[in-house]
Amino acid sequence: MASLNVVESAWQYLITNFSEFQLATILTFILHESVFFLSGFPSLFFERYGLFTKYKIQKKSNTAEYQDRCVLRLIIYHLCVNLPVMIISYPTFKFMGLRSSLPLPPWSVIVTQVLFYFILEDFVFYWGHRALHTKWLYKHIHSVHHEYATPFGLTSEYAHPAEILFLGFATIVGPALTGPHLFTLWIWMVLRVLETVEAHSGYHFPWSPSNFLPLYGGSDFHDYHHRVLYTKSGNYSSTFTYMDWIFGTDKGYRKMKAVESGENEEKKL
Questions:
Q1: pTM of the model
Q2: pLDDT digits (tens, 9 = 90+) for 110-141
Q3: In the 8-state DSSP scheme, what is residue 142?
């Protein structure tokens, strides 16, 4: 396929000019930061300048100072926690089978592995996140993430360093089990970042993924989690909704949606 040849040519350039260690650590970090901030800043600007208010889930907005505080702490967390973890964990991933050489894996393998990562991550994340809503863990760790009851995209990674490590395990457990190609790992990371940024965006647009993908949670589903008291919030899943449905932790959300639906029907009469 021509598209694959173009991608492989680009990959050849990377593996020729950078060591695998550099690709798996420094360039992975740069890719993460680029995708995260480029996808996360729009909802910050929408909120700051009052854009697309029709699609904003909550009426409340964060102040510019509160937004800037988030950005500054994110930069510190990423440089002092995320980057060192990437560097330290490289030998482990290498031991588990990480490779960067050509040929690249076929798209069928990439899609299968990424889908497996999403399903496994959602399962592990659900239980880890639910544990973080127990009294002690919430008070001492998870409450940092919930400082922003009105989330915007960048708040998705605003968390206590311990939580970054704790829930970060859910993101890397799938790749650690399969020992993927670095290219597959990059695709997984990009999609996971885009998903969590969208879920925290604070906006529900007509083109939001949850309007088209069955069982996908998205911004409306997760925003409810942020604005409700931590002991009653539910909606613990990261990507999908079925775990919360199976274990009944989405009852409050479904009740709220039923009420909203009834109110909308009354307005039409």
A1: 0.93
A2: 999 999 999 999 999 999 999 999 999 999 99
A3: G
Across the chain, which distance is largest between two alpha carbons, in Å?
67
Q: Which two tokens stand for residue 204?
A: 């529900």
- Give burial (CB, 10 Å; 0-12/13-18/19+) of 237: buried
The three-state secondary structure class of 78 is helix
Cα–Cα dist 141/73, whole Å: 15
The string of pLDDT tens digits covering residues 20-58 is: 999 999 999 999 999 999 999 999 999 999 999 999 999
Structure tokens at 9: 């040519």
Tokens of 202: 């604070």
In the structure, what pLDDT confidence band is assigned to residue 268 with cuts at 50, 70 and 90?
low
Instruction: Tell me the three state secondary structure of residue 203.
Output: strand
Report long-range pairs for 80-84 (Cβ below 8 Å, ≥24 apart). 80/161, 81/161, 81/164, 81/165, 82/29, 82/32, 82/164, 83/25, 83/29
**Cα(209)–Cα(102) distance, integer angstroms:** 33
